[in-house]
Amino acid sequence: MNPLLARLHPYPFERWRELTRDLQPPAGLPAISLGIGEPRHATPALIEQALVAALPGLSSYPSTLGEPALRETIAGWVRRRYGVSLDAATQVLPVNGSREALFAFAQTVIDPTRPGATVVCPNPFYQIYEGAALLAGARTAFVASDPARHFAADWTSVPEATWARTQLLYVCSPGNPTGAVMPMAEWRQLFELSDRHGFVIASDECYSEIWFGREAPLGSLQAARALGRDDFRNLVAFTSLSKRSNVPGLRSGFVAGDAALLKAFLLYRTYHGSAMGPVVQRASIAAWNDETHVVANRALYRAKFEQVTPLLAQVLDVALPDAAFYLWAGIPGGGDEIAWARGLLAQYNVNVLPGRLLARDMPGPNLARPANPGQGRIRMALVAPLAECLEAARRIVSYTESLR
């Protein structure tokens, strides 16, 4: 067996299942899950229709590079969304969802023969980043987060010696679990660090189309172009249809950016056997070409967050995030969020995810700050219908007040 497999941590949902296996929630209350970030809005009919119409394509092997029509469609969406022009032949590559691409990209980029090969990740974070680094033979360095800025990564906390060993940096904007969006100043800082040390930036942007302010979140390609980095050197953006179009089962997304990196990634993927099926490609073309369903989807999330957040704010430290569909809430007193979440499930049959399962222990700048940025916090995914989310919020309020 590959000895690197032993370095992997159990996935957060697996750990939570083990921590709650002994619980018996009350039979009289229907279960409500806010734990898993799986979109539950209806899949648009236009995508389903395109999928069915493309079924004859099952008789052909797909190209790993993807159909020219799909790559042109993706480039068109990027141009409309971010005002960025891409070469569809060299700067765009379809992938089977952002998750598999985020993992596979590290296997392409990391050179484990270089001493101290390091991948830098935010903390809290999406665990695929860590697993990808470990199985590529690299070590993982976590970035301290700033509670005063919605737990955004504090890049100044990373020592210069760590940056010097870094080969790959994962960023997530809008962030999971915090919903924080990286502003232009942060991108400028990261691009300067990348130029100085030569590392690659993998920008996870799968939540980019769920936002609550007047302006859409800034994208990495958009920031690069604004800063004169027209070649997108050492930058690849990862985007998915799962959240944008409510098709998590379609497994469709794309990567875009540095043509030299995508050429190497295409070579890896050709051997990896990760070509997108022709039926999925046709359905993806329909999805990327339509914004009406995206606007409607965003409105559904806005309605939920506008009604649920004030309810929860009565008892939790929580506020409307910049984007994404999570609430990253602090429990009263910042105590043991695992025990708190177990009690909520056992007494009120509401499932949330404890923050510590989404983060790693690390030294803080002072003894007063917790070693784990997820301590005392929970993540709630408002993916259920509005009525369920409101009922869950009311139960959380009742539970929290019962502990006083």
Low-confidence stretches: none
Helix-strand category: alpha/beta
Arithmetic mean pLDDT: 95
Helix content: 25-40%
Whole-number count of domains: 2
- Let me know the largest β-sheet: 7 strands, mixed
CATH homologous superfamily designation of the largest domain: Type I PLP-dependent aspartate aminotransferase-like (Major domain)
The CATH class label of the largest domain is Alpha Beta
What does this structure look like?
It contains 14 helices and 14 strands. It is α/β, with parallel strands linked by helices and 404 residues long. The protein has two domains: 3-42 and 293-402, Aspartate Aminotransferase, domain 1 (Alpha-Beta Complex), CATH 3.90.1150; 59-290, Aspartate Aminotransferase, domain 2. A hairpin with a 5-residue loop joins strand 5 and strand 6.
List the helices and strands and how they pair.
Layout: H1 12-19, E1 32-33, H2 45-53, H3 68-82, E2 92-95, H4 98-109, E3 118-121, H5 128-135, E4 139-142, E5 145-146, E6 152-153, H6 160-165, E7 166-172, H7 184-197, E8 200-204, H8 220-226, E9 235-240, H9 241-245, E10 253-257, H10 259-272, H11 278-288, H12 292-313, E11 326-330, H13 337-348, E12 350-351, E13 353-354, E14 377-381, H14 386-402
Parallel strand pairs: 1-12, 3-4, 3-7, 7-8, 8-9
Antiparallel strand pairs: 2-10, 5-6, 9-10, 11-14, 13-14
Helix pairs in contact: 2-11, 3-11, 4-5, 4-10, 12-14
Keywords:
404 residues, Aspartate Aminotransferase, domain 1, Aspartate Aminotransferase, domain 2, 2 domains
Quick gist of this model?
By secondary structure, the protein is α/β, with parallel strands linked by helices. The protein is built from 14 helices and 14 strands.
